[in-house]
Each structure stands twice: as structure tokens, then as C-alpha cells.
Amino acid sequence: MRSALIEAFLNLFKKPDTKNYPFEETYKPKDYRGLIKYNEEKCIFCLKCEDVCPPQSIIFDQNIEDGKYKYYYNSYLCIYCGECVRACPKPGSEGAMWQVEESEKPMAFSEQRINDDWFTLEERAESNRAKYKAIKKERKAKEDAKKLKEKLEEQKLSEESTVKGG
Ligand code: SF4
Ligand code: SF4
Question: Is the beta carbon of 59 within 6 A of some atom in ligand 2?
């Protein structure tokens, strides 16, 4: 009992063993794998990263007018597995997707609040893709009908000129 009291008393003058996270850096292993970075300019929009992501922390939302994709990444959901980078045909910091090796600003301090609307975004992206697919199908059907009409008109004109000529 006496030695415990002495130990407790001496501890009052020692520095704490714990880290004051997030105000202080915590231990980081040598092969640390951090957040995902993305460069739209190098992306070919194959969507492989989105397909392989286990917690679905990558979403490409599609514009229903022109079909263009917009990338979203949820760092709160990400488990840093690196599967997206492995699946990417253009990996690396010179490419479309890579994983940072240095730690970033602790999430607690991040202004990013994407998690709040993530599931709404997920639903919207799914619905937008279905809408765009339907719009594309309709446009193609119209184009095919137009081409067929033009072909039939050409055929008719050629038949009429043959009759006149004969
Ligand atoms: S590191 Fe893993 S969890 Fe994070 S975005 Fe890539 S595939 Fe998804
Ligand atoms: S896998 Fe790479 S190239 Fe394909 S959509 Fe993702 S970031 Fe773009």
C-alpha cells in the first residue's frame, strides 16, 4: 500500500505516456497507408475503383444531360485498403489515383462533412445512372429511326427515278 502511494505521488511529476491526440501526432508505422488522392485529368472513368471499394467510399455521380462523371470520396468510410489504387489502370501520383504515405490533418479538424449526405448521394448516383442509360437508349432509338427513314426515302427516290428512266 505504501509503495503504491509513493508510485502515485511520483507519477505526479512524470510526463504522461498517452498522446494528446488529435493535438499531437500519434505513432505512424513505416509502411503507413493514408487517404486516397484523385486526379480527374488523368482519369479514364472506367469506374474500377468504385467497383472494388469494400465500404463504397468512392462514388461517381453521372450527369444525366451529358453523361459526365463527378468523383466523390468519403474519407470517413475509407478503410485504407488500397484496393482502388490496385484496380486503377492509371495508378500513382502522376496518374489518376494514389494513396498518400504521410498522415493528413486529423479528421476531427476536417471541414469536410460529406458523411452527412453520403447515402443520399449514393442513391442519387444510382438513380442518375439508370436515368442516363434510359436517355441514351431513347436517343439511340430516335437516331436509328431517323436513319431508317432517310434510307427508305433514298430507296423510294431511286425507285422513282428508275421508273421514270425506264
Ligand atoms: S482505400 Fe479501400 S476503402 Fe479506401 S477508397 Fe480505396 S478501396 Fe475504398
Ligand atoms: S480506376 Fe482509376 S481511371 Fe478508373 S475511374 Fe477510378 S481513378 Fe479513374
Answer: no
Identify the nearest ligand to the CA of 38 by its number: 2
Please give the grid coordinates belonging to residue 164.
421514270
Mutate to test the pocket of ligand 2, among 38, 46, 73 (most ligand atoms within 8 A of CB): 46
pLDDT digits (tens, 9 = 90+) for 31-40: 888 899 999 9
Architecture of the CATH domain 24-159: 2-Layer Sandwich (3.30)
Q: Where are the domains positioned within the chain?
A: 24-159
In terms of Cα–Cα distance, which of 44, 38, 43 is closest to 57?
38
Does any ligand 2 atom lie closer than 6 A to the CB of residue 52? no
pLDDT at 21: 79
Residue with cell 505526479: 12
Say what the pLDDT of residue 108 is. 53
